[in-house]
Amino acid sequence: MSLLALNPLVKPDIGLLFWTTVTFLILLVLLRKFAWKPILNAVKAREASIDNALASAENAREEMAQLKSDNEKILKEAREERDAILKEAREIKENTINEAKEKAAGEAKRILEDAQEQIENQKMAAITELKNQVGEISIAIAEKILRDELADKGKQQALVDEQLKDFNLN
Amino acid sequence: MHKLLNFSALASLTVLLSTNAPLYAQGHEEHGHKGHEHIITVHEDVEVHGERFPETENEEGDYDPTPVIMHHIQDAHSFHIYGEGHEAVSVPLPVILWTEKGLVTFMSSEFHHDSHGHHVVEKKGMYFVNYHEDIFQLERPDETLTLDEEGHPTNTQPLDFSITKNVFTLFLACILLFLIFGTAARKYKNAGHKVPRGIASFVEPLVVYVRDDIAKANVGEKKHEKYMPYLLTLFFLIWVINLMGLIPFFPFSANLTGNIAFTMSLAVIAMFVVSFSGGKAYWKHIFFPKPWGVWPILMPIEFASNVIIKFFALMIRLFANITAGHIIVLSLISLVFIFQSVGMAAVAVPFALFISVLELLVAALQAYIFTLLVALFIGQAVADDHH
After folding, report:
1. Mutate which of A16, A37, A41, A54 to disrupt the B interface (most B C-beta within 10 Å)?
2. Does A38 touch chain B (CB under 8 A)?
3. Residue B360: is its pLDDT beyond 70?
């Protein structure tokens, strides 16, 4: 205690000890009720609301991303469908053209064949007619010659022979 | 880490005691010749007190700043504003004494600025004198104080619960804190989830700082909320009183956080808070430290360190730091009177200004350290598992 007796600076005063303890405890109770609780609660509530806001913003962003990817998916599908339709159409077109070409070629061939047949027929008819006419002409010539030549019997015979040599046809 | 701090606090205490003790052994009085060349002049009744009292001049006739400085950093029963002796202007404060005849109250002005044990105040048939801001009780009104060899009166001392300068400062600080934080708290009511304006926007970062960097960081995320009101009150009370002590005029300037009774009171409260927070693991660690071989040595060390020394260091650290700051500023200003030259002010004032600015930092720092360490001790006490 001689140390304490030496210097009044380190001699605690009972009065100040008492007042400090009492005042501190009262101050603690009062400030807790009227200052610390309201301030800390408000700060805490605000921090919670900020956290919520951030979380919901994050959610919204995720939803947006989801929507965007959905859109892209739909768009992709639509594009694929369009491509498929176009491809199909192109195939149909080509088929149609090919078919038409084939059909046309067939038709042309048929027409050609018909025409050839007809030509052949007509040729045959013309030949037949020619034959008939040649026959008739021959008969007429023969008749005429006969008429002229018959007057002379030898001559008639010579003529017939000569004629027959010339008309050795078909 | 705190063991190192304990050591430094004890070292600063030793330095403080060794520097002041010899000065104080000279006596306790502010006395001097009523010379015109001196700023400090005191009334002349030297013979009553004998050579036990210090003088504002020493034997060589030079100015001695010690009594003035000691007067400023110690408690007083009235709030001195300016002037010396009977011409002094001061605010009287209530004197509250607990005597064998019960409670005695009167205003400190009844001592008529006397703190040398002369002016006797009679109450309920008892006689009281103020001797260096300690109240002593005399048997008869014409009796003088009996001093022992060390200069301490042997007369009876009633229990002194006076509203002294320091208690007044404490109340003022409480009112200030209540106004500041009460007003701030009210701003939150209408603000909803928005950031409040005005004083609350100034106060909030500080409160959040104490919560996040002191309480949460040291007590822990889960358990800190219970201790928040205590830590906040502690931090802001110490800080505000530190700052009030730096303002050199009425109603501030009291060296309350540099008073051992004040810091002792806070340290004892901290001791109770920490000890009652201590869980099973904490007390097991104190009473049954391992390894068992050194248990007889380790147990007393652990007990003393955790239950006494930690808080003793808290008490000394705040007291020594704040008192030292006040002493340095006053010593620098005293240079003007020691050299008896106004020109000295050109040196003393810039230095005192520098130290005062440094003290602004120390004011916040000491409040922070005190609160931080209490939070750290609470954190150690509430920790579930050690090592």
Report:
1. A16
2. yes
3. yes
The reply to whether A65 falls in a domain is yes
- Domain range for residue A148? 12-169
Q: What angle do CA B70, B75, B79 make, to 5 degrees?
A: 105
Segment 149-168 of chain B within 8 Å of chain A by CB: 150, 152, 159-164, 166-167
Smallest CA–CA distance, residue B168 to chain A, in Å, is 10
CB contact under 8 A, B161 and A18: yes
Q: For residues B165 and B97, give the distance between their C-alpha atoms in angstroms, rounded to a whole number.
A: 16
CA distance A168 to B7: 159
Q: Answer yes or no: do A13 and B261 touch at CB < 8 A.
A: yes
Residue positions counted in chain A: 170
Q: Cβ contact (<8 Å) for A31 and B167? A: no
The separation between CA B69 and the C-alpha centre of its own chain, rounded to angstroms, equals 14
Count of A–B CB contacts within 8 Å? 144
Q: Of B377, B360, B371, B382, whose CA–CA distance to B211 is shortest?
A: B371
Total Cβ atoms within 10 A of residue B199: 17
Domain assignment of residue A136, yes or no:
yes
* Cα–Cα distance measured from residue A119 to residue A13, given in angstroms and rounded to the nearest whole number: 149
pLDDT at A150 over 70: no
Q: Which residue has the tokens 């959610």?
A: A59
Q: For chain A, how many structural domains are there in total?
A: 1
Among all chains, which residue has been given the structure tokens 């001049």?
B57
Tokens of B27: 């006596």
Residue of B nearest to A38 (CA): B185
In a domain, A151, yes or no: yes
Could you tell me if the ipTM is greater than 0.90?
A: no
Averaged over A39-53, what is the pLDDT? Answer: 90
- On chain B, the residues whose CB falls within 8 A of the CB of A52 are none
pLDDT in tens, B27-59: 333 343 333 333 333 333 333 333 333 446 555
The span from the first CA to the last CA of chain A, in angstroms, equals 172
- Out of A7, A34, A46, the one facing B182 most closely (by C-beta) is A34
Which pTM value belongs to this model? 0.73
Q: Specify if A7 maps to a domain.
A: no
Average per-residue pLDDT for chain B = 81
Residue B134: strand, helix, or coil: strand
Q: If we measure between CA atoms, which residue out of A50, A37, A26 comes closest to residue B225? A: A37
**Residue range B89-128, pLDDT digits in tens:** 888 899 999 988 889 899 988 888 888 888 888 888 888 9
Q: What is the SS3 assignment for chain A?
A: CHHHHHCHHHCCCHHHHHHHHHHHHHHHHHHHHHHHHHHHHHHHHHHHHHHHHHHHHHHHHHHHHHHHHHHHHHHHHHHHHHHHHHHHHHHHHHHHHHHHHHHHHHHHHHHHHHHHHHHHHHHHHHHHHHHHHHHHHHHHHHHHHHHHHCCCHHHHHHHHHHHHHHCCCC
| pLDDT tens readout for residues B202-256 | 899 999 999 999 999 999 888 898 999 999 999 999 999 999 999 988 888 889 9
